[in-house]
């Protein structure tokens, strides 16, 4: 008797890729209000970035972060490492501004001013100029390598890399005087660190804006992941309005879409074609959306051609789409607890920041005790302590100073420096001895204060506390 074989197993292993192969996005060019805003912001940000290092101010570079000298020049202001609190204030204000703008109108920073967006936009301008529109670029991508493709791609990458190198050169120019940097570059005399950072930042710009593009926004930028916690139902976002767009479908321009039971969306996919991250906004708000509003401009152009009202895709809020209030009520809902709190915090910190800058004393003094001996007895039986004062003149002009000490009756100040003068932005060291009568010393350690004051400007003064030790 023959035994039947068991049926073959159908549980064959299935291979599945954990990473989807990325299709290259060639966005379609679009024109409109928001496209003009992007162009304006690109030109403005790059005019500032490329132009500021060349601007001269009081016979020096207007904006220079001199790490070697530990001085940071911003027009009339000069900051030192001791002024780190101002950097903290700027970072806090930047974070609050990001929170506020995101709560009001979504990813405005990403869509219009982020360096990744800006340089990607510039590189796409070059690409369109040299390779044609999005259809011509797609055709070129699929074509075999030949002289024409090699010429276009080679020229494009040459222009890209020139822009990237100039970007890296400008960045280094904020830390090394850019005129000196230009001279060293022309004479092929760049230092190793300048060379490294110019090439490194240039290569990063070329790679991020030329190749990675939307991948940086979708996978590398953390903002895409946590932006949703800053949104609420009253946040303005780029939105497809299902109530007027659905049901979608193609039709001729002469068709009365209302009679045909259709919405205003003709399913042309222009909103997808113009999107730099390749998403379909009709599927709802997605974390990949950078808020550039290219889909709004593209959709408005189609609506104009069809004779339909604009606004199928627009900046609006979730509550407007739900019908809780009309578009005219958006501005009224901008002022809500979240935005008011952010605004109040920004106003308070900005006021404190400006007040601190306005009352900032351009003088800093540190005191260091003589480590050889805490105290010693003089031939006259007095107690002497030796110190070294480090005086930093943060002002752009020279000053003469007086030196006094308080804390012990009859305290004498002895210094070898007859005239305490510091040149502009100079650091000087002053050896100082304090002498006191042991009768007046109450305890082993007594607090004393040094007071250093500018003769020509009494407002420039610093007080430093230290200890006077008895034997």
Q: Give the overall shape.
A: elongated
> What structural category arises from helix and sheet content?
alpha+beta
How helical, in percent, are the residues? 40-55%
Q: How many helices?
A: 16
Uncertain segments:
none
List how many beta strands DSSP finds: 16
Q: How many structural domains does the protein architecture include? A: 2
Strand content is: 15-25%
Radius of gyration: 33 Å
Largest sheet: 5 strands, antiparallel
Describe this structure in words.
This protein has 471 residues and is α+β, with helices and mostly antiparallel strands. It has 2 domains: 21-360, no CATH class; 363-469, Sandwich (Immunoglobulin-like), CATH 2.60.40. Helices cover 41% and strands 18% of the residues. The chain contains 16 helices and 16 strands. The strands form 5 sheets. Strands 8, 9, 10, 12 and 14 form a 5-stranded antiparallel beta sheet that branches. Helix 1 (33-51) crosses helix 4 (115-131), helix 4 (115-131) packs antiparallel against helix 6 and helix 4 (115-131) crosses helix 8 (192-212). The chain is elongated and about 110 Å long. The relative contact order is 0.10. The model has no long low-confidence stretch (mean pLDDT 89).
């Amino acid at each position: 008797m023959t035994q039947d074989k068991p049926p073959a197993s159908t549980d064959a292993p299935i291979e599945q890729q954990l990473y989807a192969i990325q299709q290259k996005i060639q966005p379609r060019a679009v024109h409109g209000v928001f496209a003009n805003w992007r162009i304006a912001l690109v030109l403005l940000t790059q005019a500032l970035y490329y132009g500021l290092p060349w601007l001269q101010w009081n016979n020096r570079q207007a904006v220079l972060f001199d790490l070697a000298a530990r001085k940071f020049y911003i027009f009339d202001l000069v900051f030192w490492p001791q002024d780190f609190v101002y950097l903290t204030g700027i970072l806090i204000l930047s974070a609050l501004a990001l929170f506020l703008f995101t709560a009001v109108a979504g990813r405005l920073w990403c869509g219009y001013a982020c360096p990744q967006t800006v340089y990607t936009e510039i590189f796409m301008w070059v690409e369109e100029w040299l390779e044609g529109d999005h259809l011509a670029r797609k055709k070129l991508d699929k074509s075999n390598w030949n002289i024409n493709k090699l010429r276009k791609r080679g020229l494009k990458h040459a222009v890209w890399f020139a822009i990237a190198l100039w970007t890296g050169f400008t960045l280094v120019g904020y830390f090394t005087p850019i005129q000196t940097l230009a001279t060293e570059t022309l004479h092929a005399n760049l230092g190793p660190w300048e060379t490294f950072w110019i090439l490194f930042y240039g290569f990063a710009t070329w790679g991020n804006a030329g190749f990675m593009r939307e991948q940086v926004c979708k996978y590398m930028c953390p903002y895409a992941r946590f932006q949703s916690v800053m949104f609420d139902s009253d946040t303005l976002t780029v939105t497809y309005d299902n109530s007027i767009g659905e049901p979608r479908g193609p039709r001729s321009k002469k068709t009365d879409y209302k009679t045909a039971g259709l919405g205003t969306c003709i399913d042309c996919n222009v909103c997808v074609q113009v999107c730099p991250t390749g998403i379909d906004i009709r599927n709802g708000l997605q974390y990949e959306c950078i808020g550039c509003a290219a889909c709004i401009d593209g959709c408005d152009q189609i609506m104009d051609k069809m004779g339909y009202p604009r606004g199928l895709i627009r900046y609006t809020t979730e509550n407007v789409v739900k019908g809780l209030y009309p578009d005219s009520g958006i501005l009224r809902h901008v002022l809500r607890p979240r935005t008011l709190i952010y605004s109040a915090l920004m106003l308070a910190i900005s006021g404190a920041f400006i007040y601190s800058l306005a009352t900032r004393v351009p003088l800093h003094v540190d005191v260091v005790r003589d480590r050889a001996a805490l105290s010693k007895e003089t031939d006259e039986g007095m107690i002497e302590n030796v110190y070294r004062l480090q005086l930093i003149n943060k002002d752009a002009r020279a000053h003469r100073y007086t030196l006094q000490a308080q804390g012990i009756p009859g305290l004498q100040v002895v210094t070898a420096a007859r005239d305490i003068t510091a040149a502009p932005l100079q650091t000087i060291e002053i050896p100082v001895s304090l002498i006191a009568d042991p009768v007046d010393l109450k305890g082993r350690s007594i607090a004393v204060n040094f007071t250093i004051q500018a003769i020509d400007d009494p407002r420039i003064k610093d007080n430093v506390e230290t200890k006077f030790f008895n034997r």
